[in-house]
Amino acid sequence: MKKKNRSRRYVIAGIVGFIILLLACTGCWGYRLLYAPNFMTANTVYVYIDRKKDFDDLCRQLVDSAACCRIDAFKKLAKIMHYPGYMKTGRYAVTPGMNNSALLDNLRRGQQVATRMTFNHIRLKEDLAERLDEQLMIGKEEILECMNDSAYCDSLGFSTATIHALFIPNTYEVYWNIPAGKLIERMRREYDHFWTEARLAKAKAMHLTPVEVAILASIVEEETAVTEEYPVVAGLYINRLRKGMPLQADPTVKFAAGDFSLQRILHEHLDIESPYNTYKHPGLPPGLLRIPSIKGLEGVLDYMQHDYLYMCAKEDFSGRHNFAVTLAGHNRNAIRYRAELNRRNIR
């Protein structure tokens, strides 16, 4: 009887031991699957999921960019959580020592991290679309489709020639997978934030709309690379507008010619028939030559009051200009500049 009891105890102890061992193994397996660090990056890295990427593409990113130690464990947990069928686009952070459970929780919920979007020194709409395409999930075609839609632009208070005035150059935090329409809505809010009552009042006092300020600022920025000259050049063009004189701005001729690299404007360029050629057509051109910076916009809004009507690049090629009140004074400046062009054999 005692032997039977002893044997029974051994069996029970064995069963209990086996269960404990099984639980320990299961717990260890579960810990490694769920909570053990699996991404051993030195710094936070980001994985990107667009509409074309599938689960295998994501796994390759995790191995190549996020230093995943056990990709099979990640795949197994992902399948248990039914994640592959519910992938969401976005930019997701992978932090040093992150575990599968934390990452999959973010991926399943679409808990992405915003990215910084920056654009400056942009001329054409196509250039802007290209820059946004480089930084966000949206393709340049999607942006251009919106910006070339006359009805859509009109609904925002712009034309297809001025819609890029909506984009105030700065750094913005947006979600990487933001749709084109939502991005333009965000830019509209930033535009309205920039155009405060004080700035609107300055534009009104100049008898210009915000879009016209942007057009003039785009000419000013193409005319001079010296920010200190922005208010002087802006004042000169405002003087011309008020007197009903054509702007005769060389950058508008370069735009009409489709060649911003022109160093010397010739008579053949001045004869180009284009609404952007301000030698042939008075007033402001119908659109922007570039997206002006905040400094450019403020240079127009805070233009310098003076009597200058003429400007000519300095003959030292410093990027600065000689200004003149009279045509005679301007001609003297122009002779010196042309002489230097000839001396340098610039045609």
How would you characterize this protein structure?
The protein is mostly helical. It has three domains: 82 residues, Dna Ligase, domain 1, CATH 3.30.1490.480; 79 residues, no CATH class; 110 residues, no CATH class. The protein is built from 15 helices and eight strands. A two-stranded antiparallel ribbon has the order 1-4. A two-stranded antiparallel ribbon has the order 2-3. α5 packs antiparallel against α6, α10 crosses α11 and α11 packs across α14. The protein is elongated, with a radius of gyration of 32 Å. The relative contact order is 0.08. About 4% of the residues have low confidence.
Task: List the SSEs and their pairings.
Elements: H1 2-34, E1 37-39, E2 45-49, H2 55-65, H3 71-80, E3 90-94, E4 98-99, H4 100-109, E5 115-118, H5 125-135, H6 140-147, H7 150-155, E6 171-174, H8 180-194, H9 197-205, H10 210-223, H11 230-243, H12 250-257, H13 267-270, H14 294-301, E7 310-313, E8 321-324, H15 327-343
Antiparallel strand pairs: 1-4, 2-3, 5-6, 7-8
Helix pairs in contact: 5-6, 10-11, 10-14, 11-14
Question: Largest sheet, order of strands side by side?
Answer: 1-4
Molecular shape: elongated
Estimated radius of gyration = 32 Å
- How many DSSP-defined strands? 8
